[in-house]
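Course assignment 3, question 2. Fill in each field.
Student: A.L.
Task: Predict the tertiary structure for the chain below.
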Amino acid sequence: MLLRTKILDIEANGEYIVILNQQDIEKIGFSETGRVTIQKGEKKITAIYNISKDLQAGIIAVYRRVAEKLDLKEGDEIEVESAPQPHSVEFIRRKIKGEKLTKEAALAIVRDAVDNKLTKPELAAFVTALTTMGIDLDEASYLTEAMVETGKKMVWPENEIVLDKHSIGGVPGDKTTMIVVPIVASLGYKIPKSSSRAITNVAGTADRVEAIMPVELSLEEAYEVVKKTNGCMVWGGNLDLAPADDIFIKIENPLKIDPLMLASIMAKKKAMGSKYVVIDIPIGKEVKIKSVQDGEDLARKFIELGKKLGMKVNALLTYGEQPIGHAIGPALEARETLEVLTANRIEADLIDKATDLVATVLEMVGVENAKQKALEALKSGKAGKKFREIIEAQGGDPNIKPEDIPVGKYTSVIEAKRDGFVILIRNSELIKIGRMLGAPTYKGSGMIIHKKLGQKVKKNEPLLTLYSDNLNKLEKTLKYIEENEIEPMVIGDKLEMTLKKISYH
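Answer field:
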């Protein structure tokens, strides 16, 4: 059926959405998928339709992304038809019944997800089936390859050594990527790093980096930065790498399930052309992986999946019981990173973890004394110089100083209520407080943690300094801490080595 377009200047989180008149949809035919196909010339997409009695018959109102995708203008005549249910739904049904995904099924599901042919209920059914029925390494490899195939890729010469790292996440203040990338790049190896923004934490790597330099580069721009400097630190959401991953994440997050974690991570790495990857797996009570045994199991899966994908993967199990460094929040962490890289500031845990990650990935390509070489690159200023080269190549100010990065102008200090030692740091409370203060949306919001585990504390000594760009947010945060008697840092007489005694009776 031919309809004329009305362009709506509305964006709907990347989805293709149109509005149709009741009479027109009756003529087209109701679709059990709630979708229609729209075609202009050779271009064709599938879109979700909503029905409006108020819209004039013969008109199709299209959201901005639909207009951009089909290059539509106001009043264009386009062909609209009812969209049949895609064949990939049958593969989803089979997975629900417990059948293994084939390579064909994985590609069909991923391709239809990217082409907007699957509804949210169908996608939810798929990720739920993966959670309940499980996903083995063969299925993970099929899904990874499908995610890579349906997106853009960085292509490097066959003999190019391309390194990368990824953290499972969950630890506040983890700015290690911003140390790892310039060290590796300064030592002559390529490391194209794409990173995410925070979803539940105070800051993601892209949020931290953006406090210093632009991160929303295109894939082509990022490629040029790496060619020029050996490294980049960019936001993955602008690269169109493994776009299915972002679609699945939007379904997974509300359900608090993550069956596609391995495929999600490895798809982004493979799409960036990475051949050697180190995976950082923090272990702790309040991060994703609670025990060393679970961490070892996950590490083995990453290593085996890497083999199936033609990549070499190693993993580090790292300490996840407290923040890394002292700064938490995009701008504060950016300042701390600059100070470590360019002013020889010593943050022992941050430096140790970052150089361990560097050493692990360098050893994979035969570098000897890798840890020492990483430390020398940092101490000599070589890594700091490389960091500034990357800043300039990504469109930032290479002469930026830590104090040039603005932080929240409204501050408050949380003091110790007694003498003692820090015996517990509640990462989950620090994350909640940081987000209440406005991070990561307000980049200057966050906190400085003055004491770490095992350190001695005196009564009324500062434990935390809170920062916010918004006075109202700071006041609400302080009220929350006071009314709920929140202790993000617990002070005791000593660190107890025995947690609990269990006796046999």
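Instructor remarks: The first helix runs from residue 22 to 28. The mean pLDDT is 93.
Grade: pending
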